[in-house]
Amino acid sequence: MNNQEIIDKIKSAFCNLTNFKVRNNALEVITAYSTINSKFVSVFITFTNNKIVVTDSGWIDQNYYDTPLYDESEFIINRVTNSFQTSFNVKSTVDKEGVNFYYKTCETIDQIPSAVFDLANFIVGVVNAFCIQYKDEKEEKERETFRRDANDYLKANYTDKVKLRSALDDFQSIKFNAIINKSSKLYLLTYVTGSTQTYFENDLRKSIVNFEIAVKSKYTDLIKERLTIVNDKSEGYLPDKSAFIFELLREKTTREPVKWTEKERLLELI
Amino acid sequence: MNRTNKDIRDQFDFFRELISVDKIVLSKTIHLEPKKSNAKWLTGQSSVQHETINEEITFAVERSKRDSKYGIKLRCPSLTSEPFFRFDSDGPAHRNDFPEIPLEEQSVTTPHFNSYKEDGKPIAYKNDTLKNEKEAQIISEDVNFGVSLFCMESNTKLSTGDFPNVVDKAPEIEFTAVQNINFDNISFE
Questions:
Q1: Would the pTM count as exceeding 0.90?
Q2: How many domains does chain A contain in total?
Q3: Which of A30, A32, A57 sits opposite B181 (nearest CB)?
Q4: Cβ of B186 and A91 within 8 Å?
Q5: Cβ B122–A62 below 8 Å, yes or no?
Q6: pLDDT-based confidence at B182, cuts 50/70/90?
Q7: CATH number of the domain residue A197 falls in
Q8: Is A53 on the interface with B (CB under 8 A)?
Q9: A124 plus A141 within the same structural domain
Q10: Distance between CA atoms of B149 and A194, rounded to whole angstroms?
Q11: Are residues A52 and A78 in the same domain?
Q12: Are the Cβ atoms of B187 and A93 closer than 8 angstroms?
């Protein structure tokens, strides 16, 4: 293997990948940087008002990179954009039609390559951030289905005695999935589910904390049972692996966790 | 990011038939109107009748009011939600990210067509007309030239054998064939 041959090949391929389009108002550099949705990033060099400006020409804002739109990602994308702007020292401005331009300015022609390099890296980062779906759809769907099934089951059996997503009066911020008020006694219920062990254990921890706080309520004497319904059909239900957290939960509940496949047990307890 | 279009991969014969068999655009004129979801774009479309496939197919044109960038798309919603064939007059170069293509040839600048390979991976390409830089420039500046080229490439035409004509329903007074961003009007610190 000839090292020099490889070096030359890589250098020439990288170099030849960079392309240019001469436009009326700017020089477009089609850089060698590509995004995860297979777009090569372009930056535009223009001389305006006695300044050399390197800009994205509003392509990010106008979605010329054709990224998917995930409504719930806005917050995280803003964070990513701000961090990258700071790191690459990229400024932004808005034209009269409201389009956002990201840019860097140069004092001399010698500074242009460095500005192109920075802005191209910035655009890759931001466009890639747009491409990712942060919300775990499978998890959300499974959680929603289980919550609805459990709610329906309780509603069917305890009708107006059950209050869903409810809190004790003195701890309004601590919501239980359900509170059943039967014969002047309260039954607190939490649901535990998750498509992975992590999600499942997060629910377990939440139940532990909620019950811990519940016993500090002034209504503690009225609370007859503290119960957890676990979705033993979910992929995150791994009782052996989560044994330690299950043990902690048992200390905070009044009964063994009720498995969803044995939900009739609830009817005996309440 | 896995950009494989599984719908097209799984029904590739259907996709091939969609493209290769003759199609008739039913409206002689495509009127561009402001796009509801994006005020900076105009859009217009027509139904398409396929010679052998009896599914809903649409031919759509979109044009930016700012810089005359336009796109032409053929859709068949029963196959896939994405357009199955596209033309981009401007915008970023596409990367044909296949190991058998040398890196320096992976970049396909605009204007270009977007289609799919048998494995459902998107692929951009230029036909002979677009490979000619001068012709490519003329096409990228005039949506009606683009429509003609697109129609020839995708075996689509009017019942008369002509190509559909794109017109602005409400032409803007300052509209010219080529619009450019005036960087002097933007305040760069």
A1: no
A2: 2
A3: A57
A4: no
A5: no
A6: confident
A7: 3.40.1560
A8: yes
A9: no
A10: 52
A11: yes
A12: yes
